[in-house]
Design a protein that fits this description.
mainly beta, globular
Length: 124
Amino acid sequence: QVALVESGGGLVQAGDSLRLSCAASGRTFSTYAMAWFRQAIGKERNIVAAITWDGSNTYYADSVKGRFTLFRDNAKNTVYLQMNSLKPEDTAVYYCAAKYGSTWYVSRYDYDYWGQGTQVTVSS
């Protein structure tokens, strides 16, 4: 069992940066691939970025490549999403997700555990 708690969301202006954190409970964090998804009002929950259990491989959605960076600290049971050059279209609730195993997946249906979400709002 893994409990995930996101933090770091907020209201920013276009061009600003935010860093989201996802803290996981339990001693087996390093055995989980992790991901961030986001869901805007009236839209589906889609993947933003994902990372393997050891941090050696990452995936980014085309819409965030070059602006967002995903990394993890297994000693702290935490995964981070650094978001730079934010745009109004990045506005959404951001969810952290965990999947047991080494490899990330892009479908939300493949993830086993979810956080409660953190709101990110980017004004123009």
